Amino acid sequence: MSPQRPTADLHATAAEIAALLEHHRALEALARGQDRTQRGVAVQLQQRQNAADVQRVLRGMHPADVAFVLESFEQDDRLQVWNALEPSQAAEALIEFEPTVRARLVRETGRHRLVRIASALDPDDLAWVSDDLPEDVMAEVRESLGEIDRTLLQQADAYPPQSVGRLMSLDVATVRESQSIGDVLQDLHTRAYLPEHSDRLFVVDTRNLLRGSLSLQSLVLAGPQRTVAEIMEGNPLALRPEDTAAHAARAFERYDLVSMPVVNDRGKLIGRVTVDAVVDFIRVTADKDALAMAGLSGAEDIFSSVWDSARNRSPWLLVNLITAFVATRFIGVFETTIQGFVSLATLMPIVASIGGNTGNQTVALVFRGLAFEQFTPDSRRHLLRKELIVSLLNGILWGSLAGITAGLFYRRAALGIVMMAAIILNLTIAAAVGVLVPLTLHRMGRDPAQGSSVLLTFATDSMGFFLFLCLAWLYL
């Protein structure tokens, strides 16, 4: 395996390829200027030379590094480099791309080449990217597989996306309880290899029922005459293929696992999940949640077209625009009050801003609790009660400071009291919204990250304006 390359080296590789592409574009333009009878041959030879030069630079690189380099190019150059890759190298890089980049490359790759690339993947990796491949391509690839690989792929495809069945690998090393350690070592020498990320062997009986696990450390340190049953760990943690990938990720994080067996309803070992698949899932999920919190309806490549980017960002911008107009109506209701006290217009954003900050802190805390499945009905009530008390205390502290400052600045004590009261009430509302909105979305089966930020902004802005102006109208 290639050593990990520093990011600076990968950027240097991308720059080298960019220079090659620019050079070859100039040469290809010259080739197209040849006599008509020679033009086709000259252009074809130049394109082959382009591909050979790109392959030379990327040869021997880890597939993840190849994907990183390609993702740093704009779309036209990325496609040119992608088409220059050998099908086997392209197949290894395909599973490493960000989902949006992979989907676009698949759309812009010819069917024949796509079949060759997909055919170079093993069943586990093919199942991982099968949702991104056209159905006619998958059908042709299935026909080209051997009977065993076709059965394995069909089994993986039977499970829903985001499930353990889609993450698991079917390449598992097993031993029997009755075997001696010497026999196990001899079998491993005969096998000549272990599946990647193997930290343990799984112990099964004659019916392939999972009985335990045997760590490689225990295997190496135990005497050759001892049996597997004597040193194995019984009752190992196991997953079901129907479990969610998020459940598997939490198990790996909680128990510091490298691999974990997957069993069916009868307890038979059918595969395993490894830490690399879990890390890939966590990375994709984290990217999706980060974009969702910013109001993006889906993943977005930084080199996406202007139209694709604008369309991706539009839905929640529309919602935000509507809620902003609703919030301004609260201002319109108190237009006469504002005209009488112009200072209110300058102080309103402070009330809304500090409420939004409090709400975002609460939302982040709730997201973390949901991610780690820490909530029970009692803990939800406890969190709501605690956040309301915290916001009340912060409101009294910072509302008093803001009120004193405003009162001294505008030489009006009543204005300071109004501002303090508005901040206390708005912080309390922000805390309630920050707890209830994501929990409600989660209970409804919706992504709590999608929309929470927009709804929180609407609540803190509109209620901040309303409370401040209403109190000013009543008190001033």
**Ends distance:** 74 Å
**Record field, number of beta strands:** 6
Oligomer: single chain
Query: How many helix segments?
Result: 22
Structural class: mainly alpha
| Total count of domains | 3
Spatial strand order of the main sheet:
1-2-3-4
Largest beta-sheet details: 4 strands, mixed
Global outline: flat
Give the proportion of residues in helices. Answer: 55-70%
What is the fourth-level CATH superfamily of the largest domain? SLC41 divalent cation transporters, integral membrane domain
- Per CATH, the class of the largest domain reads Mainly Alpha
Kindly describe this structure.
The chain is mainly alpha-helical and 476 residues long. It folds into 3 domains: 7-162, MgtE N-terminal domain-like (MgtE N-terminal fold); 174-284, CBS-domain (Roll); 306-475, Orthogonal Bundle (Tetracycline Repressor, domain 2), CATH 1.10.357.20. Helices cover 70% and strands 6% of the residues. The chain contains 22 helices and 6 strands. It has helices at residues 7-32, 36-58, 63-71, 75-84, 87-94, 99-107, 111-119, 123-129, 135-144, 147-157, 164-167, 181-191, 216-221, 228-231, 245-255, 275-293, 306-333, 335-340, 343-371, 377-410, 413-443, 449-475; strands spanning 174-176, 200-204, 210-215, 233-234, 259-263, 269-274. Strands 1-2-3-4 form a 4-stranded mixed β-sheet. A two-stranded antiparallel sheet has the order 5-6. Strand 1, helix 12 and strand 2 form a beta-alpha-beta unit. Helix 1 runs antiparallel to helix 2 and helix 16 runs parallel beside helix 22 (449-475). The chain is flat. It starts with 6 loop residues before the first helix and ends with a helix. The mean pLDDT is 85.
